[in-house]
Design a protein that fits this description.
The protein contains twelve helices and eight strands. With 305 residues, the protein is of the alpha/beta class.
Amino acid sequence: MGGKNPGLLPKLMEGLKKSREDLKDKMDSIFTLRNKLDPEMLDELEEVLITADVGVETSLEIVSALNKSMKKNSNITDAREELKRILREMADTGASGVPDRGPLKVILIVGVNGVGKTTTIGKLAALYRSEGRKVTIAAADTFRAAAIEQLEVWGRRAGADIIKHSEGSDPAAVVFDALSAAKARKADVLICDTAGRLHNKKNLMEELRKVQRIINREARDCSRETYLVLDATTGQNALAQARMFADIADITGIVLTKLDGSAKGGIVLAINRELDIPVRYVGLGEGIDDLQPFDGDAFVEALLG
């Protein structure tokens, strides 16, 4: 089973190894030692899901769906397989994003510092370049000293153009110039970095709104996406960040980084369910080709084995 992206399953199997090992023993003891679904078994399952960072609300929903399904349909004899089916349904993100239209696809990248925004931009650029697309990157995080230099390194590796101003410049001005340059150079994709300072939410909000206004005005005929980058290893904290950014910007997708270093893989289900924001890409390593389009079927298979 590999779902829509067969190449993803082996990478996910390796990347979700920590989460799967943690879950497998617990799931085995629940499903193997009991023949029927009883209240005690459901309580144990709920607890296991919560510890995998599926979240309280989503865990309750999963357990309730499993209980209903098993009671309603006597033909279902394998509770573990039925659980997988429910999780696959929950992990299915549906469409793969905003349909490409116009001459340019513009992607705004948001997220707090330290989640892997810069590496995500480099890997995303490499992914589009591997599809034969011409990519421009806007270095609009002008506040963090190393941000521009890091993007230049990733840009060279990916074969993408970089548009930058000096440190401390107005981020909206960088995005404006990048849009002009991307159009003039007939780029297919423009990826815009942004600052991730959280100490002043009001400033961050104003800055992002200003950048968003420029994009909406100058790229009204283009596909426009806003990806929120989250660190999978932070578990429920990632969910809190997602809620905050959803208030600030119109998030169209999540990029979940460091999934390979986390035992909290269940956070994917919590984000999908509680925020109704699809996970678009997952980061499964340090390499430039380790950012993969998300596939719900492969994810569930890799999580539960």
